[in-house]
Write a structure and sequence with these properties.
The protein is of the alpha/beta class and 194 residues long. The chain folds into 2 domains: 4-15 and 92-193, HAD superfamily/HAD-like (Rossmann fold, 3-Layer(aba) Sandwich); 18-83. The protein has helices at 18-28, 35-47, 57-67, 72-83, 98-104, 122-128, 148-156, 168-177, and strands at 4-7, 14-15, 93-94, 110-114, 137-139, 161-165, 181-184, 191-193. Helix 2 (35-47) packs antiparallel against helix 3 (57-67) and helix 7 runs parallel beside helix 8 (168-177). The longest helix is centred in the N-terminal third of the chain and has 13 residues, at 35-47. The radius of gyration is 17 Å and the shape is globular. The relative contact order is 0.19.
């Protein structure tokens, strides 16, 4: 019997609003001069809990871009350009203590990265932070929340599963429904449920 930990990426393994701000800067290339300032102000309002209109910072940027008339192709180009920057010192950082946690896991523990994001920049970022070798499997473009279910089902057949993430609906609820343990992380909470 082997245990598995399934980590989300954005907001869980990588923290801070740097990746979202990089997305906003890339998006601003396709927008009017006021877009970046307006978007940063909205991100700050979202992070301060002053608006619940958005799911996360990426949703702020994408929604405001669509409302500004930026086409889906340009939004996608901006997103991929921002993801390519993940491996640099700016704009992303590994979660504090992540490396130490991963180093202390028993050898029999499988560590899976399951993210809705594409592969772009993820491996180079993990390598730059010295944690790449601690991950056994990478699942990109997962399609969470529904896409998390088969990942957890497969893992839970081998033993206990812990799903770690910052969005309950995407990262925790599908795992909890299957009997996995969950851990909510991020600026607003640090709790675990069974």
């Amino acid at each position: 019997m082997a245990s598995t930990i399934v980590f989300d990426f954005d907001g869980t393994v990588v923290v801070g609003n740097g990746p979202v701000l990089a997305y906003a800067r890339q998006m601003a290339r396709y927008a009017d001069d006021a877009f970046l300032e307006r978007t940063i102000a909205t991100i700050e309002a979202f992070e301060a809990g002053q608006t619940d209109r958005f799911r996360d910072g990426y949703d702020v940027v994408g929604t405001l871009a669509a409302e500004a008339g930026i086409g889906s192709d340009d939004r996608q180009r901006a997103y991929f350009a921002s993801r390519a920057q993940l491996g640099s010192a700016e704009p992303a950082a590994a979660a504090p203590g992540l490396k130490e946690i991963l180093e202390q896991l028993p050898d029999a523990t499988r560590v899976v990265l399951a993210t809705n994001a594409p592969e772009a920049g993820v491996v180079s970022a993990l390598g730059g932070w010295g944690v790449l070798d601690h991950f056994d499997e990478f699942v990109y473009d997962t399609g969470k929340p529904a896409g998390l279910t088969p990942i957890v089902e497969r893992a839970i057949a081998d033993g206990p599963v812990l799903s770690v993430g910052d969005i309950v609906e995407n990262d925790l609820a599908p795992a909890a429904e299957l009997g996995a343990d969950t851990a909510l992380v991020g600026a607003t909470a640090a709790t675990s449920t069974s």
